[in-house]
From TrEMBL:
Keywords recorded for this protein, A-Z: Membrane, Transferase, Transmembrane, Transmembrane helix
Name of the featured protein: CDP-alcohol phosphatidyltransferase family protein
GO CC field: membrane
Entry's transmembrane regions: 20-45, 51-71, 92-111, 175-195
One protein family per Pfam: CDP-OH_P_transf
GO molecular function terms noted in the UniProt entry: phosphotransferase activity, for other substituted phosphate groups
InterPro entries, per the entry: CDP-OH_P_trans, CDP-OH_PTrfase_TM_dom, CDP_ALCOHOL_P_TRANSF_CS
Family label: Belongs to the CDP-alcohol phosphatidyltransferase class-I family.
UniProt feature coiled coil, ranges: none
Length: 203
């Protein structure tokens, strides 16, 4: 199946989800805020070392994050503020998960586990900020976005989700994943910085 066909298939699924959940009396923005609730409970389970429960709640949050966009599209209520709110909630969700990981009892691997966690947090923050800073400093034209970088938010959270689930069997696997994310997120940030530099030089 081609990438285009996969996108079309996902689009059809998204429409069906939007039609189903639009029957519930909640706006798209309310669905966006609701996606934060499972993550708050996931943090509690991370602190209790119940990685499987945390993973399930993480998955529920990701599904609700998809619902808000699907509902906005089928009800024709997509807005700039809705997109802004979704971005803010995305940062809260990722930040809360990282916060929970700080309090989880995980083994060290070459470096203290907190070093891997904060390196991942730093890389994740810089990847996002490199994009918004390019727009803020007008390197990117109005209405455009800085594209590029190995890992976007969706890929970061998918890899982290896999790590959390694997931690239910062996917590060291989660540490391996955090180390991988620490490297890849910072690499992605550097990629965006160099892309912005190349664009700026062309002006």
């Amino acid at each position: 199946m081609t990438l285009y066909a996969q996108r079309e298939k996902f689009k059809q699924v998204s429409i069906k989800i939007g039609l189903l959940f639009s029957k519930i009396p909640l706006t798209a923005n309310q669905w966006t805020v609701l996606s934060l609730v499972p993550v708050i409970f996931a943090v509690w389970f991370l602190m209790r070392q119940d990685f499987l429960a945390a993973g399930v709640l993480f998955l529920i949050s990701a599904f609700l994050d998809m619902v808000d966009g699907a509902v906005a599209r089928v009800t024709n209520t997509a807005s700039k503020y809705g997109a802004y709110l979704d971005t803010i909630m995305d940062r809260y969700i990722e930040g809360l998960i990282i916060f929970g990981l700080v309090f989880a009892v995980l083994p060290n691997w070459y470096l203290p586990v907190t070093a891997w966690i904060f390196a991942y947090f730093f890389g994740s923050f810089l990847t996002t900020y490199a994009k918004s800073a390019a727009k803020e400093k007008e390197i990117i034209r109005e209405g455009k976005e800085l594209k590029g970088g190995l890992l976007e938010r969706a890929e970061r959270l998918f890899i982290l989700f896999i790590g959390i689930v694997l931690a239910a069997f062996n917590p060291l696997w989660l540490v391996y994943v955090l180390a991988l994310l620490a490297v890849l997120t910072n690499f992605s940030a550097l990629q965006r910085i160099f892309i912005a530099r190349r664009i700026a030089k062309q002006k």
